[in-house]
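Protein modeling request. Please complete all fields; requests missing the sequence field cannot be processed.
Requester role: graduate student
Desired output: 3D structure, token encoding
Chains: 1
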Amino acid sequence: MGTQAPAAVILIRLVVGGIFLSEGIQKFLFPGELGPGRFAKETPLPAPGFFAYLDGVFEIGCGVLLIIGLLTRLAAIPMIINMIGAEVFTKVPILVQDGFWEYAHEARTELGQLFGSLFLLIVGAGAWSLDARLSVPPHPHMQPDTEPPLTPPNNANT
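Delivered output (158 residues):
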């Protein structure tokens, strides 16, 4: 898969990556409210401290990769899984308990991040990215329709 997406994809990368980076950093700066304390209150995961910090590390690392456009599709995958987990563990209970409108309000950031990450997985990093700068064009012989089809040799004896 190439990075043939338009240059404007940088806007999606900067927003999605920037939010992931910010959220990851906040898990370390405010552990009681946004890190292990929040995970202990809102998720049924064992070892909430471990998973909160693991989540923070992934959000920081993948956020930076998305911002600079390096390994963009690969970095989008754990963030998609992360956002699905956030929806299931923290937002679906709001939907069940408080209804659609409260859920829609509470889930807006996670849904934006989920669909932004899906977009980057499908479309790629775009022209203004390290992925585009580092991509190696395929060898001319590997490109379709660059050589005529093979024809059997002309053998006059048969």
